[in-house]
Structure formats: structure tokens, C-alpha cells
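Q: Joint fold for the lines below.
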Amino acid sequence: MGNDLLNMIELRDFNLPTTKNEDWKYTNVAPIMKYNYVLGTSLGNEDHLSSVLDEYFFQDFDYYKVVFINGIFAGKLSDLTGLESGIIVDSLSNFQKNNSELLSKHLNKYSAIDNGFNELNNSLSSDGLVVYVPKGKVVDKPIQVLYFNGDKTENVLSVPKNLIIAEENSQVSIIANYHGIKGKEYLTNVVTEVYAGKNSIVDLYKIQLEEENSFHIEKVQAYQESNSLFNHYNFTFGGSITRNDINTCLNDENIESHFYGLYLAHKNQHVDNHTFVDHAMPNCMSNELYKGILDGESRGVFNGKILVRRDAQKTNAYQSNKAVLLSKSAVIDTKPQLEIFADDVKCSHGAAVGQLDEDSEFYIKSRGIPQDIAKSMLIRAFAADVIEKIKIDELREQINHLVFEHLNRVEVKNN
Amino acid sequence: MEEIKTNGLQEKDEISEDMQLLNDVTKNEYKWGFITDIESDTAPKGLNEEIVRFISLKKGEPEWMTEWRLKAFRHWQTMEEPKWPNVKYPKIDFQDIIYYSAPKKKPQLNSLDEVDPELLKTFEKLGIPLEEQKILSGVAVDAVFDSVSVATTFKETLKEKGIIFSSVSEALKDHPELVKKYLGSVVPYTDNYYAALNAAVFSDGSFVYIPKGVRCPMELSTYFRINNEETGQFERTLIIAEDDSYVSYLEGCTAPIRDTNQLHAAVVELVILENAEIKYSTVQNWYPGNSEGKGGIYNFVTKRAACRGNHSKVSWTQVETGSAVTWKYPSCILQGDYSVGEFYSVAVTNNFQQADTGTKMIHLGKNTSSTIISKGISAGKSNNSYRGLVKVAKKADNARNFTQCDSMLMGDKCGAHTFPYIEIENDTARVEHEATTSKVGEDQIFYLNQRGISTEDAVNMIVNGFCKEVFNELPMEFAVEAQKLLAISLESSVG
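A: Joint structure:
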């Protein structure tokens, strides 16, 4: 008990943002502050979890397996056999011991501390995922990382700090998979930094399936060198309050960035996605597609900012965000934002909010398909263009399945 | 400044405790012998309760009006200047402004030869008739063109229909009950910093009342009402359209206005009742400062329309080419069922101009719809922002909104920004938002060049095409002038 008191985190000590802050206008973090958290200690003996945790992984394809429990690396549960030499997938604390020079070159170099949550992560974090892909290497299988959070008796705070380094001509695909344990409320507060070197390709999938009494906050900050490609896929299913900040800085020429997002919320869930694409140099391309499906009394927030700086001529920047409200009490606040200082650019953004099309529903029903299936078909169609972007076939099908499971709707399979 | 004498103003007041406190705060002024002369035409610089009383007294306003102004002033003192817009300007010293002066007569000139040739050039390009040019530049008008008589016949026609079109001060004397009922009901003095300031010190403005079932037979324009008066620094416009009525109101004119006041903080309130419609068009061409960004007017306006009845409609159209800093969001509160709000805007910024403008569509009633078409053009080193809010409240079933905001950039030193806020609390809402940013296409210019059209004209054609959707909404005469105005504003921005 005495130990716990020492580890107790007083959130009030951190200057957490309020709704007076323009970036947090629609997200009230007061419910998060109601609890006193214990910093993520491991949930006791890891070994017995091995069989339990297996079911949380996305299956039917080959992957390197990494497990974090409450933000702390669980080496025994991870399986990295077959990883090509030179490529490093490890915990932040191990990496610090073995490769401190490399680490100091990259860690905290891309992500500035923008708010109290970043500060919280920065001052308390001791572990996280590090992926290092040296020049010219391609990681042959995706790396699936399971972040397993929460505790049955304590309010846990997990603060993993992740770092992905993809050097020149390298390629890596990472699946970050967030789950929790049914129990007390917990807070996951993540910072992920991505360095995409020249000609590199980085795919980062995030599937957030935390418990519905949990809070999830993540900031992704990418930094891209010339000719690099960064794809971020963001799927939100769980959490009572979720906030994602996905930022990228296109700091050289011929860079491409794609952000895809799908968020589903029901009951009282609150999902807030903020994206920021910083075009600093000419001849780059960015594309964003975010879709939300809101049911029950849930609330969705989308804020997408595109900044085209003075030098970033010949920029192409597109953004589209759409939300569908399935219930009377669902709320969506969306704010696409363009700030453009260069004249020879093509930029556009579109936002649309509506409900499922009545005519389409009628059309389907008139062909003898029951109402609930008709609705599900339309939801399937709405979500399809984000889900289709997933490059791993098996993962795509499993996420598709999750959409219907989460909304408690009849599943409609492809084809 | 004139010699200032004491008078008994102070004793007349019932000094409440609040007042006492405020008096203490502003006491410094008294120590230096700051006493207002009621006979004087001009108030001394600075702002305090005395000045507010002085303005009210000068205008012979009823007691409740004075009180209202004072309340606004006291509220203003508790407020802080907002900092959120995307514009930069030096801090305004509110104690360095003269808040009341009798309308100045412009120096009378004998012929157009005495007028600044640059101004004449602009008139010519706008195609303003010679006689009108003389009025605008303050040349004595001959007997043939009697603007006063035009205005008089105008007024008679309106009177027959029961339409009231006068200044707010006149309306306060003739129809105090109407003013009392509606003034501040759409934009309360607590609304924002500049609305509070305006409520405390507004000089004058237009008052329009359209009775039930009347369709105003002509476009009402401030130009006719003001005649040879100057536009005020703190204007306040109030338009009330009773059930089943219609009015189209024009504010400003395309001719360049060289005003000596740097800060303009106007308030416009529109009240639209059942089945009524107000169309409000603005062309703003105040002094934008010189090409180095020196001088120019700060235009901070609060404009809002309340569609209170079912099937009521409001339409804002604006062409903003002037002012160094423009900061305004004509808004629509769609309270009545089936009410409609429209916003059409062209904002042009050149040199060092800054504009942060847009609209707010607040859907409260059922089956309400709104349209926003905004065109921003930035040239030189200017910055142009669109900032808009579309809000659909919980009970606003079947609300519909379409928003399109397009920006055009000319040159690589300017900026275009969009900040659209969309807040939806009802699942039956259909809201669409589109925004694009582009430049004048080189191949388009080349195509026109090929056909013997100079680059300057080609750019004008392309820009006019870009703004066409908005110009279509302007009254005919205005639309023609607005097109030319655009060309002048963008002059020499394409090299």
C-alpha cells in the first residue's frame, strides 16, 4: 500500500488542457481527472497471461509479436524470432542501454511538448516500443504490438513512448493494437515519434480496442525526409474518451503522406481526432480520409489542419471527413482547416455530415432485405473506402468484422 | 480643443454604489479638469461615463436609452479585447479616440479640377456619373441634379406604404416603443467587446421598419438617407421586417471612402418575422492603407439576423475590398421553422490588407436551411481568412447546410486560410462543406492572351468568373460596379 502511495500520480500537477484551449474546445478532460492513478506496473506474473493474450492478436497472417503490459515491455510474451540482423525491435529501456547514441539522435527530436498530456508522458515514461530499421532493410513481416492496459483493482496510468526509425530505403509495417482488462478505469497516454528517412516507407496501423471505461490519448508525430511515404491508419472502437493527435511534417521534397481514419462510437463514447499536416517544402502530396459512425449518445470531433508554408509550392493536399449520425442524440463537431501561404498549390477539403440515406435504405428494403440488414449494408458501404485502404488482407477482414461487432449490428461480409 | 466649462451634469445623476466605484476609478480624469461642455460640438478624447452621458444628452435621448448605454459601457469595462482572429494590428488606445463630434462638413470644392486626380481616375473606372462624382468628392452640385429632392420623393413613397426609414436618433424620438423593443435584442451589448463599445457610444445609424404585408418597392440604401453626412464611426443599424414583408437594403457604396476615423465598430441587427425576407447587401470600399501598409481603416463589425418567424429568410451579400483590417461575421439565427439563411461573400485583400470574415449559421428551428458561398482572393502581402460556424442544435430536425469556400491566391507572399467549425447535434442534419484553394491558371491567361486580351484584363475576367456566384446575388447596379471595383482592387497585383 505504501508503495502504491508513492506511485500515485496527481494529474492536477500537470497542466492538462481545458475546453478554453482552442485545440481542446470540444473535449472535456475533467472525467479523466476524477481518478488517482497508479503508474503502470506489470500485472504480476506475465507467464500465465501468454495464453490469455493470444486471443487479442489479429490472426491468420505472419507477424512479429511484441507485448506491452501497462506500458512496460513484456519480453517473455514477445516473439521476434526470424528478425533479420541489424533490424532492432525492442523496448525503449533496453535500447537505451545498447544503443544510446542512436537513441539520443532521434528521441524527443520530433515531438514538441504541446500540452499537459505530452508533459505527463514525457516526465513519467520509462518504456515503450523502439523499432529501428537500418539503411536498405525491409522488415519482411508486419510487427504487431499489443498494448494491454488496466488492472482489476487499481486505476492504472500507462505512458508508453514509442519511437520508429526507418532509415534510407527501408520499409516497415507496424500494427499497434490497444486492449484493456475489464476492471477499474485506466488512462493510456502515448507519444509516438516516427522518423521516415529518404525513400522509406512506413505503415503505421493503430487499432484502439480499449475498455469502454478507459481513457486513451495518443500523439503521433512523424518527420519525413525526401521521397518518403508515411501511411497512418487509425481505427477507434473503444475507450470512453479518446483523443488522437496525428501530425506529420513534410520537411523535404517529393514526400507523400496518407492519413486514413475510421471511428465508431456508441453509448457515451467521445472520440476526438486531430490531424496536422505541415507542408514545409515544395512538390509534396498529402491525403486524408476520415470517417465516423456515431450511435447512441456518442460524440465525435474531427479537426484537420493543413498548413502550406511559403516555400511549399506545387503542393497537393486533400482532406475529406465524413460522419454519419445513427441516432438522435449523437453529436459531431468538425473543423477542417486550411492555412495556405503558397500560391501554386492545389488544396481542398470537404466535410459532410448526415444520416444513412433513406432512399437507399428503401431501395434495399424493397428488394426483400430486412431493415437491420439494410442499415448494416449502408454502414458497410460508408466505412468501406477507409477499410479498403488496409494493405494486409486478413487484417482488413478482421477490422470489418469489428465494425459490426462494435455497433451490435448484423454483419455484412464483402462479396 | 475648445475651452471646457463646468456644468451641473454630475449633480443630476443619481449616483449608485456601482457608479461611485466607477467614478473613483476614473477620478484621475477629473483631477486634470476633465469636464465636458454640453455646448461643445466635439467631446474631448477618451471614454468614460461622462462621455457616454454626453453623447446621449447631445442626441436628446430618453432616460432608458442613457441607462442602456451606461450599462453597456460598464460591461465593456469588464471585458477584454479579443485576440483570437487571424489578424495583426497595433493595440488600439481607446482613450485616444474622440467619441462624439457633430457631422463634419466636407470642404466645398468649386469644380472637379480641384479633386485629387487619383480619386477621379477611380471614379472613371467605376463608371460613376459625373454629377454623382461631384457629390462624392464634395463638389458643389448645380441645380439640375438635386439630390435632396430625389431623397424627398423617395421618402414620400415609403411613407405611403407605412415604411419607416430614418436614422436611429429620429426613430428614438418618433417610435421609441419600436426601438426599445428591438434594439439590442439580436446583438445584446454583452455579446462581444466591440458590440459593447458600440452600444455605449454609437453615434447614429439607420432604422428601417417594414409593416406587416408590405413589400418595399425600392432598394433602400444608406446613401439616400445620409445625403451629405459622413458615415459614422460607430454605426448602428436596426431593420425590422414584420410578417409577410420584404426589403432589400444596401449598405455602403462602391466609391472609395476616405474616412478620417481609423476604428469602425458597427453593429447591424436584423429582425425577421413570419414569412418575411430581408436581403442585406454590403459593398465596403474604405481606405485600405497605402501600398506599404501604412494607415487604413479597422473595420470590426457585428452583424446578425434573427429569423424569428416560420418561413422567414435572410440573405447577406457582401463585397469587401477596402479596410486595412476587416473582421466580421454576418450571422443568421434560424429560429423559426423552415427559415432560410444565406451568405454570399467576396473578400479581396491586396498589399498589406487583412480580412478575417465569414458567417455563422445557427439552426434552431425545424427544416431550416442555409447556404454559404465565400470567395476569398488574396494578392500582394495580404492575408485572407474564412472563419465560419454551422451549428445544428438538438431540436433542429432536417436542417440542411451547404458551404463552399474557395480561395484564390495571387503571388507567393499572401496567405489564404479557412477555419470552418461544424457542430452537429441532430442526426437528421445534412451538412456539406467544401473548400478549395487555387491560383489563376497560367493556361487560362495564355488562352485569353492568345485572343488578344491583355494579361491584366484576362486576370480580371478570370477573377470575375470566380466570383460570379456572389455577384449574381447583388442588386443589378451594384453588381456592375462591384465587378469594376474588383478590378481596381487587384490593380497591378499581377505582373
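Q: Anything notable?
A: The two ends of chain A are 56 Å apart (CA to CA). The CA atoms of residues 268 and 298 of chain A lie 5 Å apart.
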